[in-house]
Structures are given as C-alpha cells and as structure tokens.
Structure to design on (184 residues):
C-alpha cells in the first residue's frame, strides 16, 4: 500500500487517543494573534495499522516494542491533534530519539480529507540520524495550499514514520518524546 494511504490507516488508531493533546499560547499586545502551540505527548501515540506485531509502549516516550515476528512489518506511531478551526499552520516540531545506525524516522503533520479520505502531509521534518541523543526536528514550511485549518473538511494527526526499520530488534532505540504544532 502506498505510504500516504498506509499513514491514513493510522487515523483510526489516532482517533482512539483523541483528547490527549493540550494547548498553550497567548494573544500578543495590540490585538494581533501570536503564535500558539498544541502539543502531543508520548502517551497519545498508538500504532497506525493495528498489526499485532506493532506493539506500542508508552510512558515518558513512545516506541514500538521489539518483536521477533516484526522484522518485515511496516509500523508507524500516530496521534490525533486538535487545532482550532480557521487557524493558520506555522510549523511542526518533534523530539525524537534514534540510536539505530541503519534506521531513521521523520515526523509528519497529516491532514485527512473527511469527504474522500485522501491524506496530505502538511509538514515533514528531516529524518533522524543515529546520534543516540534526543533530536528536536522541525519543518517551518507547510505544503502549498495546506496551511489553513478547516475542521469541517479535514482531520489532523501527527505521524512518526520509520524508514527501513527492523522492529524485531529495534525496541526503544527509536523513540518519540512528543511533538508540537504551531499555529496563528
């Protein structure tokens, strides 16, 4: 299944965790809207496919548990995000950890068309590097035509997408600590 449709499958799992996001921010002086953020904590993330080999562990960070049956399984972590209607999206920032030399992950803010189910990645962070440290990765440029929030037409979720990952051994060597979506 192509990547965008597979990530879309995560919407069902993500909606099961709805309500796990929190918002923060304030209006600037003079009546102009300042940048606000909605954050998604690690416990909000679930697996995107419901595959029995994509077993999520949650705590201060989320990861996919090592499973000897999962060497050729394609699992991602997804979490819903509620962004105020008519906002303008500014950026996606995620704290990710990668200690796997042959693997990487990137984060996406995905919007799902509620009429036809099509998905679009609004933001995509750069991929992680195997530093063994927490990496704060960000994308400040939304895909063309996607920065306006329309909750009557679209639903939104964050996805941590893994590349070339053998989940039979990876375990907590690849983690999601959380993400934030900035908007005005």
């Amino acid at each position: 299944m192509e990547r965008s449709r597979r990530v879309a499958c995560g919407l069902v799992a993500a909606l099961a965790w709805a309500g796990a996001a929190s918002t923060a921010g304030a209006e600037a002086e003079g009546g102009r809207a300042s940048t606000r953020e909605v954050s998604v904590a690690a416990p909000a993330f679930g697996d995107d496919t419901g595959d029995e080999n994509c077993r999520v562990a949650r705590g201060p960070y989320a990861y996919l548990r090592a499973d000897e049956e999962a060497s050729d399984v394609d699992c991602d972590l997804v979490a819903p995000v509620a962004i105020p209607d008519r906002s303008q999206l500014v950026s996606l920032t995620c704290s990710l950890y990668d200690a796997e030399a042959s693997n990487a992950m990137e984060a996406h803010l995905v919007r799902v068309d509620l009429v036809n189910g099509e998905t679009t990645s609004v933001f995509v962070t750069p991929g992680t590097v195997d530093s063994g440290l927490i990496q704060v990765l960000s994308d400040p440029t939304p895909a063309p035509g996607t920065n306006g929030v329309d909750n009557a037409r679209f639903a939104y979720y964050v996805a941590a997408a893994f590349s070339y990952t053998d989940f039979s051994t990876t375990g907590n060597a690849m983690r999601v600590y959380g993400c934030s979506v900035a908007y005005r």
